Structures are given as C-alpha cells and as structure tokens.
Amino acid sequence: MPEPRETAVYTHGHHESVLRSHTWRTAANSAAYLLPSLKPHMRILDIGCGPGTITADLAELVPDGQVTGVDRAPEILEQARATAAGRGLANVGFAVADVHALDYPDDTFCVVHAHQVLQHVGDPVRALREMKRVVRPGGIIAVRDADYEAMTWYPASEGLDAWLDLYRRVARANGGEPDAGRRLKSWALRAGLTDITASSGTWTFATPQERAWWSGLWADRTLASAYADRAVEGGHTDEAGLRGAAAAWRAWGAREDAWFSVLHGEILCRKEA
Length: 273
Prior knowledge:
By secondary structure, this protein is α/β, with parallel strands linked by helices. Helices cover 39% and strands 22% of the residues. Strands 1, 2, 3, 4, 5, 6, 7 and 8 form an eight-stranded mixed β-sheet that branches. Helix 6 packs across helix 10, helix 8 packs across helix 9 and helix 8 runs antiparallel to helix 10. It is globular. The N terminus is likely disordered.
C-alpha cells in the first residue's frame, strides 16, 4: 500500500473555544444513531477522539469490552486520558493515529466510530476504506459529520451569512469538505461498502443558555483559534472581517427569538461477513 498523503489541515485547532464545544459532546447528543447497536463485550475504535468525552461514554456502554481512542494530535490525548481517568474507566486507551493508515491489523474491531472527522481529512474515501479494513466481518462503521451549508438559523443575519461563506472557503482551502454530512453515503459507496443505513440528526440551540454558549464559542473561535489565523494568512479575510463575524455571532446570541440548528449526516455501515 502506498504511503498516505495527508493533504488537509485541521481547520479549528485546539484553542479553548474549540474544546468548549468538543467537551460538550456526549454519546447521547452525538452518537445516538449508533447506541442501539452496541453490546457490552464490543471492542471499539473511536477515531478523532479529541478530548475523549464520547470515547469515555462508549467505554461505559461496553463494560466487558475495550475502547481505543485515537487522534492525530498527541497533545489532545493527554486531556482524553484525564477524562477517562477522572471517570475511573479501566477499559479505555488512547494512541496517536492517522485515519488514512491505521496501525491495526485487519478485522480487529467490532465497531469503528468517527464523529466530525471526515470533513477534515484529505481523502475521506481512503479513510473509510481503512475503517472497513480494521473492522471485523459483520462489524459496524459509524460516521457522523456536520453539513455547514445546511446549517440554518433565525433571525436572518447578513453577518452570519458572511461567516458561513468565510468558514466554508477556509475549510476547503485547508483541504477539507465542510459540507461532509450530505456526502457520507456517497463516500461509503465509493469505499466499497454496501450495507449502509443513512440517517441524519441535529443539534439545536434556542434557550438563553444554549444561545449564549453557542454564539460565545463561535465568536471566540472566530477571533482567537487556529481557524482565525488560517482565515487571515490564507487571504480569505482580514482582522476587521473576523471582528465583524464575531460581532454578528454575539448579536444573534443576544436575540430572545434566536434559534440555530446544525444538520449532521450519519451512516451505519455493516461489513460483509
């Protein structure tokens, strides 16, 4: 097999404003489509585990099994280990890995899971082939990704329209595909998977607390994260443009009638036995 060529750069980085979102994620709010398929004995690979909150939830759901969380960023794995240790979990471990070339034998895992990963990789079809390779016959590949173009909100905001256009341009310049959710089934078919169940799920932010949290983390991410640096360094906007986008987020979040929904594509693929 030729060496993989990672052509994508992770758009968000691991600024506090990014981790504010990632550590909010749970198996219940981010992997509900997978949970009915889990059995207590299963061995699970969680790709792109980040700070490990979903990974730890999965470990609790397979008490007689084992969960391995992997990520390309070694520094975030320290936080993932702390998350698991803080919850007293003995059936979870972590390692550095590249989804394009996983360092595991064929037919190793009962479930391979990836949440918000394929939108950031250089070759999502190759990534799915690797996931297929390391899952056992009869096992499950579970993937969920947001679809940025399908995000919707109220009230209308020219500032948020400009933010979304900017984000999608920056993500694509980094080698990713921000509208990954709608493409998951197509990518899975191209990867040679045939038993595919496609679905969708949403996050919705509407209460005062939800609006403040969601608008605040995106305003901060727009000004201070790796995304902000890449937006300016890539010539997509300037500091004034970033400040305008952040202000639009805060103005939206202050509206009593504000509502925001994030659409995610989901696929459950069973490897042929």
